[in-house]
Design brief:
The structure is a single chain. With 380 residues, the protein is an alpha+beta fold. It has five helices and 19 strands. It has two domains: 105 residues, no CATH class; 253 residues, paralog of FGE (formylglycine-generating enzyme) (Alpha-Beta Complex).
């Protein structure tokens, strides 16, 4: 059935509930009090085997040197903790897992995370409302860019810089074709939007063949819709992320080439894995996009598909240094713009899926390798 937008107000942004995972001999921590995690998030830490543990990524105020130090620091925090999470957190919890692999692609650590910092923005559509899941990304500092020693390094990623990012909400997934269609049927702001532009069709696949100008229009329509139907969100504005915001969200306090660690595998992401990045076994080339969230492991901020599937438009232009934190969306009426895309796509080799990799595309380009995700920023 063709979707059409209604004029009725939709349900407000509400927390999405999930039951905490059941773990034998688990001990729940409220790591906020230990300074290890922000947003009231909680972690279950469990030793699986001598080679596999569960660990927690953390909202550290400073750059985390390496994921390999996490188990020791978390075990130390675990021994010092006394308050169970069930007594400390009353909000409904969203649960997800994040995985780290070694240079051979073997599993090292797994984080099992519960957080209340997860919301659904509901879009009015027929036959029913459509959710746009968002997660709270707590601001902080991180090391942006890549060292010269990193495989795939190029000079556009220099200099490595300590960058500061303010808090924002980010789409858990790239915008899907179902979500795109709901917004494309809303009243226009500056330009028309085709409701079904994607080359690889599927409601839960990421929308692609979207120009940067059209992605900006999507955000403009979303803001117009939120102002009319979600007045409680009047202080927030939806837009594309800057490069700095995107990389901060992708890294999730890691300094390795990928948020998964020193390499990537096609069991964790959709990219061209036929040529290994490090010493992992060669993977597959799917030759198409995959439904968002197909790979069950998120990064430690709770974001999926940050590596591969579709490249993602950023608000930043190619002339801006990687450490720029206040990039604007420039003039959305001008076609002579080159904008940065991040994350790599289903067709990219692994070196082009790294957290630091950046390349530019003309603002009017429509490609089946390029999509986007949105962020929501509180206005001062």
């Amino acid at each position: 059935m063709t979707e059409s937008v209604t004029t009725q107000a939709t349900a407000p942004m509400t927390a999405k509930s999930a039951s905490p995972p059941t773990l034998g001999r688990r001990r729940w921590l409220r790591l906020t009090s230990l300074g290890l995690m922000g947003g009231g998030a909680a972690v279950a830490l469990r030793r699986w085997s001598p080679s596999l543990h569960t660990f927690s990524p953390t909202d550290l105020p400073e750059v985390m040197p390496d994921l390999s130090t996490l188990p020791e620091r978390l075990e130390k925090a675990l021994n010092a903790a006394t308050a169970p999470i069930s007594d400390a957190v009353a909000e409904p919890l969203h649960s997800y897992t994040a995985l780290t692999v070694d240079e051979f692609g073997h599993n090292l650590y797994q984080a099992q995370i519960c957080t209340p910092s997860y919301q659904d923005l509901w879009l009015a559509a027929t036959p029913g409302p459509i959710a746009l899941p968002l997660v709270d990304i707590r601001g902080g500092q991180f090391l942006q860019g890549a060292p010269e020693s990193e495989p795939g390094y190029d000079s556009s990623q220099q200099p490595q810089t300590i960058a500061t990012v303010e808090s924002f909400w980010m789409g858990v997934y790239p915008v899907t074709q179902r979500q795109w269609r709901a917004v494309a049927l809303l009243p226009s702001v500056n330009r028309a939007l085709a409701p079904n532009p994607a080359y690889f069709e599927g409601d839960d696949r990421p929308v692609e063949q979207i120009s940067w100008l059209e992605a900006v229009e999507f955000c403009d329509r979303l803001n117009q819709f939120v102002a009319a139907h979600h007045p409680q969100l009047a202080d927030y504005r939806f837009r594309l992320p800057t490069e700095t915001e995107w990389e901060y969200a992708c890294r999730a306090h890691t300094t390795t080439p990928f948020h998964t660690g020193h390499t990537l595998t096609t069991a964790l992401a959709n990219y061209d894995g036929t040529q290994p990045f490090r010493q992992e076994a060669a993977g597959q080339f799917r030759g198409t996009t995959t439904p968002v969230g197909s790979f069950s492991q998120a990064n430690t901020f709770g974001l999926y598909d940050m590596h591969g599937n579709v490249q993602e438009w950023c608000a930043s232009g190619q002339e801006e240094a990687p450490a720029t934190t206040n990039a604007s969306t420039a003039n959305a009426q001008t076609s002579d713009l080159w904008l940065i895309v991040r994350g790599g796509s289903w067709q990219s080799p692994p070196q082009h899926c790294r957290s630091a990799y950046r390349t530019s595309v003309n603002a009017e380009t429509r490609s089946n390798q390029v999509g986007f995700r949105v962020i929501a920023v509180k206005q001062s």
